[in-house]
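pasting Hydrolase for the record, 265 residues
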Amino acid sequence: MRIVIGQFAVARSWEDNLARCLDLVEKARARGAGMLVLPEGVLARDPQDPDHVLSTAQSETGPFMTALLHASKALAIVFCVNVPDGAGRFFNTLYCLRDGEITVRYRKLHLYDAFSMQESRLIAPGNSLPPVYDFGGVRCGFLTCYDVRFPEIARHLAVSGAEVLIVPAAWLRGPGKERHWEVMLAARALENTCYVIGAGECGSQNIGHSMVIDPLGTVIAAAGIEETALEVDIDLGRVARAKAVLPVLANRRFADPVLSGSEPR
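structre below
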């Protein structure tokens, strides 16, 4: 499966962002992709007004989602948007759309209350584990941004069969943050012998640096700080070879980090 990562700077207007997403959809189709992965929070953003993400949140039946559902024929589109929770905050929700349907819905578990930020002021946390979904024989698991700092969630997805981890993000700038991003993505790939696809927002607030890590922890594709469409072909043979030479999942002596049917606290 070919995956295209659409890296761009999210604007204040949801209409402008929708146009950018639809343009990336066409670029992904032209490159023969089966999946387009977009960053976190693609609905709207204003670095000068943190509450803008709350005031612009839309429901699943809103015009932003409706347009992307219509555009998802024969193409999986992965992205995160803000959905009102009905109690004054919103859920940072990851969606995968395909053939006009919502195939994956995941509310971000880990809120970024770190480095002087407090996402929990505006965002309500999810309480369900992210899914593993089969896209034409490629099993994909999903995390959102800060989730990647918590290895137990990636390990849960790996032992549930994920061969590719998809990570939409809006990774904030700061001292050493580019290094944190690369190290976390590479660690999650290497310790689970799976691909990791990190789709980052660029612009004045976030680092960009979308990248693809192979199952042995090597960066095989990477973007800089500019808007771009980055593509990679997923080779399941590469996953099988990594598991054969580095059987960490088979060799582990601890129980699964999350038992089947349990929920986060």
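The two ends are 35 Å apart (CA to CA).
The domain at 2-251 is CATH 3.60.110.10 (Nitrilase/N-carbamoyl-D-aminoacid amidohydrolase).
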